[in-house]
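Contributing new records

If you add data, match the layout below exactly. Sequence lines come first and carry their own label; structure lines follow with theirs. Keep one chain per record. Anything else will be rejected by the validation script.
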Amino acid sequence: MIVLERPDGIRIIRISSPEEALPYKASFAGAYQDIFSEPPYNERYFPSEAQAILRRYLSTPENICLLAVRGRTKVVGFGIGVPAMSKPDIARDLRGLLPVPHSYYLAELGVLESARGQGLGSMLVGQRLELIDHQKYTHVVLRVSAVRNRSYDMYMDMDFDDIGVYTEVHSRRTDGRVSTDRRLFMSKLLSRRKSALPTDDGSPEPFGTGS
């Protein structure tokens, strides 16, 4: 389903099942690898791992999976969200801080370097915020690197709050080591009265925010 078409030719589409992802999964995997191999994450993913991540999210009830596509199937960005309760580690870290059953988790965001600087990252965030069921979910939450970067600044500009809660994430790095990096939780109170869509297409572009 096409959510919107941008003047630059990039379409934002929503896919809802692994079957709908078939034409895009190879390109998604390449984009996922490229984005998260960059600082601050420096993570290494094999194509099969990236495709499995997409398939797992698409198999989660109430998922919101948006792909930014150029041409027929070239994925240049993505934004994925799922209920916080579907992620046991997230639910555990947030218990007592937010109403977890009524919190929605923005799990993945990434934009290829060639598509940055055009407001695409903030658009992928804003579109997901609009698509969340505001009757069921009152809060939205995400994680960013604790290393201050453009992603953090973008979310602050979009009225997310730094809630001062950190967690450690184990990942395989591009040099082959397995190590942890520190990530920070940010949250936003959802409102039915105020549009979540950004109005400034010049918002700073994120490198990526991962699960």
